[in-house]
């Protein structure tokens, strides 16, 4: 038995090593002095530690804090908009006799198969007229639109899975539909809501093309756009690897942070015992 | 010299196309043309775009100098990711969300001029005395059908960098760079013979832009012509094309270049010379400061890129132009910024002081360059340099899948007949030019 335990441990370690290797390489590269980060062939371990790359990135144009703020602001607004729209929609589609709701649901999901790059053009022109370009709210609306179908899909299924008995008990106690959403459905669907929020965050945080199209002032750029601009050193394609890796390292941190923060909501067996 | 356009550009370009149908295309011309000065005509922030990956250090200094002089109309600079610049400009012009002025990779200027997306500045700037001595390469591409659209922002020229330490070791005179392709080959053989991981020469094997920058001039210096200017124009003419391809093939065969050079796609091109392991290399003036940072003890010199005949030479003049996109609301101030860039004071106290090339050839003789022979040497390239003029530069030359790079790769690394290789590339370039 013990031998088998070791074996499982070894396999897990090997898997972790494979998964963590690129991350580690990236973090290590960001800590190399400028010349070493650009060395070809690259070195595995930094010969000396240096924060040069971080400093260059920190001072780039408007300064890193501005870009972090833009990225974070957009991501938070995206989460907010996504939840505000999809929670009621999912509740309605899962629990109420909306005429033609299956068709409606499918139509909403259809947006999943349209590449959003194709939607950017009309969106941009519309936003330019509305004055929503160069605005975090405008970009968050784009990101919300991208994220809606997936979120709706996840939430609707999760709402549908809440046992009817729970809902009936709430009605028996005199709860209105809004009350039962708040008191019964939302607590019961926390894992799904968290998933939706997490995905919205990660998507918005990493999204490049929409941000590039919508923003044309350096004070409004988000992190991915800045990284694309900051890493190019020469017009022939020369790349500042150290700064790029520093940017990647920094951009990973919030994603990992948010994930660690929210993962405790993934509790298994939340529903077990709720219904006899 | 954009290395590769991504599909992203296609998405952005669609924005431009759709937008062009809807928005009103009339440029906002100002009432009366005021004579240009080097300070602001109206107050309020000026917005400017520049591509990333250009000469950021130089542009930052220029903008800073303007802002110090003109606190009432500071320039707010935004760097646009360099691979997305063309699409972003097109999108901006189509939607009317344009900056007041912008820096543009000079090679793409003719395309935008032809599409009437830039403001015609002929009446405002043509009579300036500074224009007469402004970098020829820049001014060629700033002109379309006798109309002027911009002035140089900064210049990147190519030249032959050589490692004096390796020259001395190989028994060569460190004050005499090669002046013909034959000498270049001969010197490279001697340096490679030093052994170790030192090689005599450098050829970027997978970077179209690097090659037009550094191998193109070898062909020009040998009397050849490379790109097809427009439909019906014959590309790749002159014996120089074949002679240079043969020269490069011989270099590779003789082991005068590192094996790894074959994979060079531009990302580490600028770092090669500074390693100290390359005897001679065609590269740009940006490499002076860079090589010094990388390898402070290395001694190096700069010559011109030679051709077949002794003492022939050529150079690729690259860099950026300042232009005004259609729809700019501050044309007069943009023109004043141009006047400012070309003024004697800025040429000497900003460009030359930072050891960057002056954009006017008559300003090369200044106190800063006199103290820095390397910059003087590289500045000579401005006189022999040129800039390709074509509406399809990307498709013919710069594309990683384009005929130019394909021709070079076959010449460098295969044994196919050079005549066939050239004929194939000619055909492909002509087809592209006829579609432009």
From TrEMBL, chain A:
Residues 68-262 form the ABC transmembrane type-1 domain. Pfam families: BPD_transp_1. InterPro entries: MetI-like, MetI-like_sf. It is a multi-pass membrane protein. It comes from the Bacteria. GO terms for cellular component: plasma membrane. One of its GO terms (biological process) is transmembrane transport. PROSITE patterns: ABC_TM1. This is Carbohydrate ABC transporter membrane protein 2, CUT1 family. It is found in: Cell membrane. It comes from Asanoa ishikariensis. Keywords: Cell membrane, Membrane, Transmembrane, Transmembrane helix, Transport.
Automatic annotation (TrEMBL), chain B:
It comes from the Bacteria. GO terms for molecular function: maltose binding. InterPro entries: SBP. Keywords: Signal, Transport. One of its GO terms (cellular component) is ATP-binding cassette (ABC) transporter complex, substrate-binding subunit-containing. GO terms for biological process: maltodextrin transmembrane transport; maltose transport. The keyword Signal applies. Belongs to the bacterial solute-binding protein 1 family. This is Carbohydrate ABC transporter substrate-binding protein, CUT1 family. The lineage of its organism: Bacteria, Bacillati, Actinomycetota, Actinomycetes, Micromonosporales.
